[in-house]
Specification:
heterodimer, A: 891 residues, alpha/beta, Rossmann fold, Arc Repressor Mutant, subunit A, 5 domains, eight-stranded parallel beta sheet, six-stranded parallel beta sheet, 31 strands, B: 245 residues, Purple Acid Phosphatase, chain A, domain 2, nine-stranded mixed beta sheet, six-stranded mixed beta sheet, 4 helices, 29% strand, globular
């Protein structure tokens, strides 16, 4: 059973549960127990499974480790501590492993010193040994490994991949037979992706190997729902989650947050002024504290902000620094070191400093633009405040009206503790295939016995027997004739006896060299034909490109044509605007929960504005000196500044005056409009549900409407909705949409989407990853490394052949599953379609002769960048002028 | 589709039927290809041979066929015959035997070492070219030595020709094709590859990279491209008219 911890234990009870010397050391070093420690010390002493979530700086690591160290010293004092592993600690971050090693060595030594002092010669007489700790990662040398084999450390610090290797190391695993504790750190970094799924299976195999379940402790930053994370951590027995107690100390820090608009008028303020005021605001905050952390969402944004802060305010390299994943490891470590010392005034980061490494004391966090999720906002802002008792302070600087509404609602949700949820990928067949190979190497398995072990891992607790067997059959090589199976087969499988095991002498070597879930990736060269190199893009960005998409590179516009391996071919574009912004693959999609809250806000606030407009008719709502009282009252409940209130009111008022409707969670507005300057006709779906859902919806509606209207349709997708565009004029009404929804439902959304993505880069790239994870391509084979380029070309061949023999081949099935469920959110897209059909979600088609204010950000979406957005800004200004002109004409 | 009175291009497959010889003609099978990839750690499911057998079986229906003429590159590996290749070769030979078809093989650049199977399997193997009736068959990697005035038509493989068409939605579609035209006053028919994985050598580009010495100069542009796909075989007209389509 999963349950929330009740009342904390009192400090005395907690401390007396610990080994007395450890307890002594603790009270000698700390004045009190932090909130998570008040629960964890005792619970872990009692060997409970515990999931601890708490902000950084709240002694989370110590809460996980101290009881365990105590147990080990108990053994030591009793003279029963052996040279074997009692506890493993797994973290996804290699850098964190070295930190942990250092941080634990100190208490281990100090406790031992205390014992020495007290026991004197008894130490030798009663053989009281020091508790040992060792690190084993990909960086561990052969010599160190041999040392660990002859004298295994009592606490082993490792990564998910190294743990998987250990599971198949017959000799080393012997020293795990008496394992008592497992600690998984950074659960939030694992539970939502395939790397974490891989670890969950490793843990299931480990427990099976031991014949018992050691106490399992998870450490995590804020995440939701915690029950889901707990299930991930402890796994499942007989379909029911194992026992786990959740210690939720994530709210022990107070939050003080505000959304700030540097200008009152976000449309007509001059570009230079907006920039100037934004940087001035940043400077004010930086000067107000000792160290400020600034998040920009994109790496290029990071560099630009650093540059501007130095140029405008004379900060030096020693004052302001950038930190993002494209920088070298050395320079990142250097920045982290300076942060710990407290010598930097400000550090600017994209996402890399969001979590993990200890970065010392931060006074304030500035967020530029929306972080797109409440959880992320809290994690980022939570990096400030000197201790868990301090208040975390954060400011969001916002530069456009959609972002403003988004950030206001987000911060409000953060204060109300409404978190967005994560999902554990379910039944990933590629990771499963890899582990079955691993299992086959250790012993001969009965097919049902293996199935049962696999299902104890939460990500496979609902695994279909049919899917399982399809993977076993694939691994057995049943897709080729008998005589070829010794080449193609990866496991030995006896169908009659229903058993499987190792195949071939090389099986283990191949497995060890190829395991893991992180795909090989390299930059993609962008070429014009025949072979002129323009520049590079990231592969992730390439997967977002649809044929005909236009993007900027080196200040010029290019249209995407085709790819070959790691080369991307383009032509210079005639169009004036890109259809996809360069940061599209970097920025995370808006979470569904937050999207819904924004939709709710739109719904509620538009009612207030509607009433208010009736009362003040005739006045120019956007230019009012003071806000109508009811509006001001409503908005003052939100954590926003004065400028923001004016901007939000103006935005809603214009939309209502112009279009008569504000799209919300209860009303999907579908707007037929056109842009005379661009010569384009648009159908704007105001579908505020985040990009993952809109990606799926836009494809379905795009295909369907282009067929119904018999015209070529382009699509642009963002978090607030999607836009279908055409050179020809497109006339639709509610009936058209009704028919489209019916057709989509008749054909089936999944079938439609599969057909649509079948020949896209997205599928090709993801298939390569899945093929490598399931060992259909061995990246490392007989001393050869297959280049990413070759992997890509070969995987396309495999896809073609596999599809020919079975469109439901497990590797193909998994690729579609990953795209439709992890990358897109097809289940929720389906739900919206169902709701539109049943009338639960209303929709309304309106016609406008210029795009309504709420559609502007969608139409200008492809334009330029979030911060340096001159072009987009100009374009927005134009659109806005047209809207205001129409509003005035209508009066 | 009927190419001449005597030659039919069987709809939707890369096979030509010659009535007067009661023969199916095809080329570039590259048997053993998947096996070779598997040895490099790339486990491509085996579909090539089945695909080829299906195409032959399809072409046999309603036609009087006594022999299969393979215009080179029956197998994939240059240097030797490995087990995977041998198994597939054997399977193809059995397939022909069961249907009482004799096999004629014109050796291509990938076909070293097939000679050792001549005796046990009773194969007719020609090392460079063969003349049968009015037809002269050669693989294509070397200049043909025809030297016989009776020959009206040359038939070759080696090129793996294909055309690329960009459809309305901007998607590039590559279709395998036959090429048909003139070579030194004789007719020349270039066969597409039968190999399932062959993506094809694009001919409708400004400077196609042709492999055979036959195409030194730009003669390919004057030939007709007869493309196959989606179950049919269609004449797309002159290659020169298809450039940049």
């Amino acid at each position: 059973m999963i349950q929330l911890a009740g009342k904390p234990f009192d400090d005395e009870e907690s401390l007396s549960a610990l080994n007395p010397y450890v307890s002594k050391w603790f009270t000698g070093n700390f004045t009190e127990l932090t909130p998570p420690q008040k629960y964890a010390f005792k619970l872990i002493c009692d060997r409970k499974n515990v999931l601890i979530t708490a902000p950084t700086g709240s002694g989370k690591t110590m809460s996980g480790f101290l009881s365990i160290i105590g147990k080990l010293f108990d053994y030591s004092l009793a003279g029963t501590l052996e040279d074997r592993v009692y506890c493993i600690y797994v973290s996804p971050l290699r850098a964190l492993n070295n930190d942990i090693f250092r941080n634990l060595t100190k208490p281990l030594n100090e406790v031992y010193e205390i014992i020495k002092k007290e026991k004197g010669l008894d130490i030798i007489k009663s053989n009281i040994k020091q508790v040992t700790i060792g690190v084993r990662t990909g960086d561990t040398t052969q010599k160190e490994r041999r040392g660990q084999l002859t004298r295994p450390p009592n606490i082993l610090v490792t990564t998910p991949e190294s743990l998987a290797i250990i599971l198949n190391s017959e000799k080393f695993i012997e020293s795990f037979k008496g394992l008592e504790f497992i600690i998984i750190d950074e659960v939030h970094e694992l539970a939502n992706n395939k790397r974490g799924v891989h670890l969950a299976l490793s843990l299931a195999r480990l427990k099976n190997l031991l014949g018992k379940a050691p106490a399992t402790i998870g450490l995590s930053a804020t995440l939701h729902p915690l029950e889901e994370a707990a299930k991930y951590l402890v796994g499942v027995t007989g379909g029911k989650p194992n026992d786990c107690i959740i210690v939720d100390a994530s709210w022990s820090k107070k939050l003080e947050v505000k959304a700030i608009s540097p200008v009152q008028d976000m449309i007509y303020s001059k570009e230079e002024d907006v920039e100037k005021l934004t940087y001035a605001e940043m400077d004010r905050i930086i000067k107000g504290g000792k160290t400020t952390l600034i998040f920009t969402n994109t790496r290029s944004g990071t560099e630009r902000v650093v540059f501007n802060l130095k140029k405008r305010f004379g900060y030096s390299d020693a004052d302001v620094a950038a930190h993002h994943s494209s920088l070298s490891r050395e320079s990142r470590l250097d920045v982290e070191e300076q942060l710990k010392k407290g010598s930097l005034r400000a550090v600017v980061s994209s996402t890399s400093l969001e979590l993990g490494v200890d970065i010392g004391n931060i006074d304030d966090v500035i967020q530029l633009g929306s972080p797109k999720s409440v959880t992320r906002a809290i994690q980022r802002i939570g990096r400030s405040g000197h201790s868990y008792k301090a208040t975390a302070r954060g400011e969001m600087l916002v530069l456009n009206r959609d972002d403003l509404v988004e950030c206001s609602v987000m911060l409000d949700a953060a204060l109300k503790r409404h978190l967005d949820s994560f999902k554990v990928p379910q039944n990933a067949l590629d990771v499963l295939a890899q582990h079955i190979i691993g299992m086959s190497i250790s012993k001969i398995w009965d097919i049902d016995e293996a199935f049962d072990v696999i299902r104890t891992a939460y990500p496979y607790s609902s695994l279909d027997r049919e899917d399982y067997m399809s993977v076993v059959n694939y691994l057995a090589g049943s897709y080729v004739g008998l005589e070829s199976r010794k080449v193609y087969g990866k496991i030995w499988y006896d169908e009659k006896e229903r058993r499987f095991g190792k195949r071939g002498k090389l099986a283990k070597v191949i497995y060890m060299l190829n395991l893991g879930t992180i795909p090989d990736e390299v930059a993609i060269g962008v070429y014009t034909k025949p072979n002129k190199l323009i520049g590079n893009i990231e592969e992730e960005f390439l997967t977002k490109l649809k044929q005909g998409d236009i993007f900027t590179l080196g200040g010029k516009l290019y249209q995407f044509e085709s790819t070959k391996g790691m080369k991307c071919y383009v032509v210079e574009a005639k169009a004036t605007a890109p259809t996809i912004p360069p940061w599209f693959s970097e920025q995370l999609p808006l979470s569904y929960e937050l999207a819904n809250e924004i939709g709710q806000f739109r719904n509620d606030f538009s009612a207030v504005v509607r009433d208010s407009l009736k009362r003040i008719k005739g006045k120019n709502a956007a230019k009012m000196e003071t806000l109508p009282k009811e509006v001001d009252d409503y908005l003052s409940k939100l954590p926003v500044d004065q400028n923001s209130r004016h901007a939000i009111f103006g935005y809603f008022a214009e939309q209502l005056l112009f279009a008569g409707e504000v799209p919300s969670n209860e009303l999907m507005l579908i707007e037929c409009t056109s842009d005379p300057d661009e010569g384009k006709n648009y159908i704007v779906f105001h579908s505020l549900y985040g990009r993952r859902i809109n990606d799926a919806l836009s494809r379905a509606f795009g295909i369907e409407l282009s067929e119904m209207l018999d015209t070529d349709i382009g699509t642009m997708v963002n978090d607030n909705g999607f836009v279908l565009s055409s050179e020809e004029s497109i006339g639709i009404n509610e009936k058209t949409i009704k028919k489209a929804i019916e057709d989509i439902r008749n054909v089936g959304l999944e079938k439609m989407l599969k057909a649509n993505i079948r020949r896209t880069e997205l599928l090709r790239r993801k298939f390569r990853h899945v093929a490598a994870r399931s060992f259909m391509i061995l990246r490392n084979y007989k001393g050869w490394k297959i280049t990413v380029n070759k992997q890509q070309i070969n995987s396309q061949m495999i896809f073609k052949a596999a599809e020919e023999i079975d469109p439901n081949f497990p590797i193909i099935k998994e690729t579609y599953r990953e795209i439709l469920n992890d990358l897109m959110d097809m289940p929720r897209a389906q739900m919206l379609l169902d709701n539109m059909k049943s009338g639960k979600l209303k929709y309304k088609v309106i016609e406008t002769d210029v795009p309504s204010p709420f559609s502007h950000s969608m139409i200008t979406f492809g334009h330029a960048d979030v911060i340096l957005m001159k072009e987009r800004h100009k374009y927005l200004e134009q659109l806005h002028k047209l809207v205001i002109k129409r509003i005035n004409e209508n009066k | 589709m009927e190419l001449t009175d005597d030659i039919e291009l069987v709809d939707g497959v890369p096979i030509a039927y010659i009535r007067s010889l009661a023969a199916l003609v095809f080329s570039d099978l590259h048997l053993g290809y998947e096996g070779k990839m598997a040895k490099k750690g790339v486990f491509v499911p085996k579909v090539n041979l089945k695909h080829i057998n299906d195409a032959i079986a399809h072409s046999l229906k309603g036609r009087d066929v006594k022999q299969l003429i393979i215009v080179g590159d029956i197998k994939n590996d240059f240097s030797t015959v490995d087990t995977e290749e041998f198994n597939e070769l054997y399977e193809l030979i059995s397939f022909a035997k069961e249907r009482s078809l004799s096999l004629v093989l014109i050796k291509g650049n990938h076909d070293n070492f097939v000679d050792r199977y001549k005796e046990p399997f009773n194969l007719e193997i020609h090392s460079q070219s063969a003349r049968m009736g009015n037809y002269f068959f050669f693989h294509g990697e070397e200049m043909p030595n025809v030297g016989d005035n009776e020959v009206s038509t040359l038939i070759m493989g080696h090129e793996h020709p294909a055309i690329v068409i960009t459809n309305a939605a901007g998607r590039r579609e590559k279709l395998r094709c036959f090429l048909y035209g003139k070579y030194k006053k004789r007719n020349l028919l270039v066969l597409p590859a039968t190999n399932f994985f062959s993506t094809g050598n694009e001919v409708n580009v400004h400077s196609p990279s042709m492999l055979s010495p036959v195409f030194h100069g730009a003669k390919v542009k004057g030939m007709s491209a007869i493309a196959l796909g989606y179950g049919s075989t269609e004449d797309f007209g002159k290659v020169s008219d298809l450039i940049g389509m």
